[in-house]
Every structure is written in C-alpha cells, then in structure tokens.
Amino acid sequence: MVFKEIDKIKVKGRDEAITIYEPVGLEAEVEKEVLDELKLWHQTMRLYRSRQWDQVEVNLLNLHRMNPGCALYELYAKEAAGKRRTPPAGRMGRRDRVRREIAADTHP
C-alpha cells in the first residue's frame, strides 16, 4: 500500500505528534507519475520541517504543475510563503488554522 503524508498533529494526552496519511493505492497499481509526485511531496515535507522555505516553494510549484487541482499543495504553498516572510520562532508546529483549512478542503 502507498500512502501520502498529510500532516503531523498533536493529540490531547500524547507528548508526540502523530502523522496523518492519505491512502493512495496498492503499490503495484499506482502509476509511475503518481509515485514520482509522492516522492517529491515527501521530500517537500522534510524540507518544510527543516524550514528550507525557498526549496519548499520551488518543490510546491513543481507539485502544482504535476497536480494542479491539489488543494493541499496550494495550502502548503501559502503557509511556506508566509513563513519565509515571517519565520516562526521556536519549534516547528502547524497552526490550528491550517488544520481547519485542510479539514474544510477535504470534507466539503
């Protein structure tokens, strides 16, 4: 099975964040283009967490070209642009607002 990482969230009562994934399909049935997109996405998530905003934005532009209708890429692009302008202080963490936007985009 192939999965796409969506985000890490902090769960009440736990010290560590958990990772949320979207199932994509069985590995043998997923097209090469989709696997290439997932590889670039997972690289982008690592860059995002290490705050390499310029490279994150480049990757997100490429991801948007690969999959223009993906609201997740648009959301992360907006977040990365904002974080590049105003870098977050302290530990990296996702904002509740972002989680609400993701939930709204995926559950109309």
Task: Name the features.
single chain; alpha+beta; 2 strands; 4 helices; 108 residues; two-stranded antiparallel ribbon
Can you offer a commentary on this structure?
The chain is α+β, with helices and mostly antiparallel strands and 108 residues long. It is 54% helix and 15% strand. It has 4 helices and 2 strands, in the order ββαααα. The chain has a two-stranded antiparallel ribbon. β1 and β2 form a beta hairpin. The radius of gyration is 14 Å and the shape is flat. It starts with a strand and ends with a helix.
Q: Work out the helicity level.
A: 40-55%
Poorly predicted regions are none
**Estimated structural class:** alpha+beta
Number of helices: 4
Radius of gyration: 14 Å
SSE inventory with pairings:
Layout: E1 2-9, E2 18-25, H1 32-49, H2 53-66, H3 71-85, H4 96-106
Antiparallel strand pairs: 1-2
Quick overview:
The chain is of the alpha+beta class. It has four helices and two strands, in the order ββαααα.
